[in-house]
Amino acid sequence: MPLFAPKPYEITPSGSVEIDDAVLSATEPGATKLEWPVQRHILGAFMWLAFLTLGLLGGRVFFLTVVKGEVYRGISSDNSIRSLVIDAPRGIVSDTHGTPLVRNVPSVDLVASAPDLPKEESERTVLKERLAARYQLDRSFLDVTFDELKKNTATVIPIKEKLSQEESLTFLEDSAQFPGIQLYQTAHREYIDSPVFAHLLGYEGKIKQEELDEHPDYLLTDSIGKQGIEKSYETALRGLHGFRQAEVDSRGRVVNELGTKNPVAGDDLVLNIDAGLQKKLYESMTGVLSKENLSKGAAIAIDPRNGAVRALVSIPSFDNNLFSEGISQDEYQKLVNDPARPLFNRALSGEYPPGSTIKPVIAAAALSENIISPDREIESRGGLSIGNAYFGDWRVNGFTDIRRAIAVSSDVYFYTVGGGYGDIQGLGMERMKKYENLFGYGEPTGIDFPSEAEGFIPDPAWKKKTFGERWYVGDDYNSSIGQGFVTATPLQILNAVAAIANGGTLYEPRIAQETRSGDGKIETIPPKVVRDHLISPDILKIVREGMRETVTEGTAQQLKTLPIEVAGKTGTAQFGGEEKTHGWFVSFAPYNDPQLALIVLVEGQAEEGYNAVPIASDAYQWYFGNRDEKAPE
């Protein structure tokens, strides 16, 4: 047997292939030793298995690249390229003279980014423990936040607002211990003279989930106007976020900048408010209330020529910076549980018996319906008796015509023209309601401000439905002097008197004057007329003369010494079981060329108090006489 087996073929020197004779001459049994035969069914099964495997692989590739291609491309992009939000500066709010009432203060929030958080629950638990210890965060809050991030893997949620400089620097030093946690540059509002303007401006704060449902284009890191002008003009003030395209590593840290889209700042908002007048009213009201051991009141000033709101004060007030900076639960509960209700805007949301401030409208109605002539006198001996009921006057006023009845606020006169007595038929509630509605009572004024109350003007049908009782003449009497079931907001009363002052045009009050965009575009917010030519100008002239007599020889003579002529109407309205009243004074000036209409409400004063009058006197003195002096601090 040879040491080496013979080669099956050789290449001859000529280059041709020579096949070994052993192969050609092999017998059939020998040939079987030279090859391994494969049975046909095994070979077929192997081929089908190969085709099936290739088909499955091809189908999976098709599914991942075509059917789910966009999804996985997005996930891949999110894992490497991110659009990082650049906050848009919120628009600045200023008064009619350009005095800023708010400023934006840069701040840094700590946020959790869902795509970059640890995937293992144990690692997330460690992260939450570190965050709670380092930043004094409530563990239950972190549990809820991280659960929310599980539901939406594209979410970024704030976990602590307005970090201190020390907290920010400390985070940057050891950010590796906090995977998925980032610093987010933003800004918060700082309100200037906060208690003076708090009810007017309102405040902004971080958006809540329920608000996000109404504003799907917002992010959970966004702030939104919550109350006041910040809420009314949220769309204009908000601005448009910018974005920074960046490549990030597995921990969400930026490794490469790819491009930037700059944010567009929100529009600046110019108000009709006169900051000096606002401060003067606030200063005067707090002074008078403190002196009289009172705590609650409101004041509003508008321009009767166009409905521009010049001041809006509600006392007690609050610090709206607490909300902008992130109010604590203890601070919030203290405000909510305060019996004086500092968060309640009395100027627009308070509904009170208007008392005698409604008498100018009743007088206009009585003259329009020919219930009484301007010179007809009615005697007040201190009250009227109807059956067993007695309806008293606040004093014996003697004989009064309609001008003097307004000036001295004769209840008997208005009982008579409102409900009838003797040979005077009286308006009745249906006609009183008709004119009160005409002057804006019983419906919102339409002011550009949230949460305005409607007030209420009753009628016989309402009483029957509500109490199952018919309407009595005593109900007419009470309604004619602004009591009984009648309620109104301070703004409604003022707006009605402004329409009397300007000759019969009812405007929608407007707090905002114009918006100004960053590119210089100015959009003026025009006055809006609700109704005009309400009643005869001659009748309104008679009513104004009566209101002027209120100052010259009636219940508001304290204003006689002012540098301008003022016309007005005092009022008191009883409430509750105590001998307490709400004190009113509504007025306008100058008498022959009205430029300012003003209402002051003092809650809970003594029955014979006239605390609203000196507050109005201070405001007129400053507005028309001393406004060049330094505004009160």
Q: Can you characterise this structure?
A:
With 633 residues, the chain is an alpha+beta fold. The strands form nine sheets. A five-stranded antiparallel β-sheet has the order 14-13-25-24-23, sandwiched between helices. A four-stranded mixed β-sheet has the order 4-12-20-21, with no helix packed on it. Strands 3-10-11 form a three-stranded antiparallel β-sheet. Helix 17 packs across helix 23 (537-552) and helix 18 (411-419) crosses helix 21 (473-480). It is elongated, with a radius of gyration of 40 Å. It starts with 8 loop residues before the first strand and ends in a 7-residue tail after the last helix. The model is unreliable at 1-26 (pLDDT under 50).
Average pLDDT value?
A: 87
Unreliable segments (pLDDT under 50, ≥5 consecutive)?
1-26
State the end-to-end distance. 123 Å
Strand content: 15-25%
Q: C-alpha Rg, in Å?
A: 40 Å
Helical proportion, percent range: 25-40%
Could you provide a short overview of the structure?
The protein has 633 residues and is an alpha+beta fold. A hairpin with a 6-residue loop joins strand 13 and strand 14 (309-315).
